[in-house]
Amino acid sequence: MAGRPSVSSGQEPGAPRKAFPSTFNSRDQVQMKDILCQLEHLYNVYSVLKDQVDQLTDNKVDRAEFEELQELLLERGQQSMAHVLADLQTQVSSLQALEWELQHVKQEVRQLEEAFGKLGLAGADGKAGSSDQSPLQLGHHRLAGAQDDVVPQTPHLGTGALPTSPAPVGWIGTPRAGQD
């Protein structure tokens, strides 16, 4: 029987054998040492493999958590991007409304300038007294220079509507002595 320690020759062939002989010869000791070394090696391999399995399990959990976090961040990122996009669209709408309002105000200013020009604010060449002032600015300076004249308050002021009655003669169009 190969691989089993030999039993002392003092046993009879039909007698039961002892499981572990009390003494080992040198050959048996070498075999036992080899077996113990192999067991130790197997245990070390087992420990390394067990650690690797544990690490892979942890990594799998970490990876699953990482993927969950990544999905959550992407979802929140998309939500925040949607929020930012909605804010930008609101701001664009507001800017477009302001642009329209500005164009409307510019048109009203042009209409007022034309109306003041028709009332006699413009000089003979069709321009206001000074090239760097608009007819509205000139009208303001002329009104500010009037000492005793009272500016009539019509219900149309502040509404953007033009008065339908002409201004009194000499009220705005005629500069006083000493004024440009």
Describe, in plain words, how this protein is organized in 3D:
The protein is an all-alpha fold. The chain has a domain of 118 residues. The protein is 59% helix and 0% strand. The protein is built from two helices and no strands. It starts with 25 loop residues before the first helix and ends in a 35-residue tail after the last helix. The N terminus is likely disordered.
What's the quick description here?
It contains 2 helices and no strands.
What is the topology?
Blueprint: H1 26-121, H2 135-145
Helix pairs in contact: 1-2
Region (Disordered): 1-25, 143-180
Biased composition (Polar residues): 1-11
Order of helices and strands: HH
How many strands appear in the DSSP assignment?
Answer: 0
Q: Low-confidence spans: pLDDT under 50, at least 5 residues?
A: 1-5, 146-157
* Count of DSSP H/I helices: 2
The SS-based structural class is: mainly alpha
Whole-number average pLDDT? 72
Region (Disordered): 1-25, 143-180
Biased composition (Polar residues): 1-11
